[in-house]
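Shipment paperwork, digital attachment
Item: protein structure file
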Amino acid sequence: SPTERRKPWPYVTATDTRGAYEMTRFLLELGHRRIGYVVGPTDQQAGNDRLDGYRAALTEFEIAIDPSLTVYGNDHFDSGFAAASELLDLDPRPTAIFCNNDEMAAGACAAVFEGGLRVPHDVSVAGFDDIPLSRQIWPPLTTVRQPIHEMATTAANLLVSVLQGDEPSDLAVEIPTELVVRKSTCAVQ
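Attachment content:
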């Protein structure tokens, strides 16, 4: 009935905050101190979680959060290109750019090259998701792998369990992400 309170549905997600934290920490450990971040749509929880992870790593390394190093995009190649171009116009420019997803990171790589700079020697670029594109561009993209297959399997199993009338032990299931280091990042030159 309309007045009957529905139970919340379980959901599966990746550890987006942790993944972004680990990528930012990785860049910091390479010596980068001016790391630009290209944020995805703020109406999506994953984008906000990833921004939180980026900020947490900077805070841990006692690096002031510089608002000029955070640029907003829409998760597409063109917005990654535009956002990276904006970051590269800063003086001093960032030595690394971390993007909310791999498609924007590919756009960032294109902006670096168009600006007459080299990835990773002049500007390291990193993404998030580990989509096939991240292995197809040159240089191959350092990224955070989303465990898509494991997330889908877990979600399907939860759905079957709920449909069979079982109570899930956890409403929120987080599957760990994984840092994937390829050739688009290096130590500060």
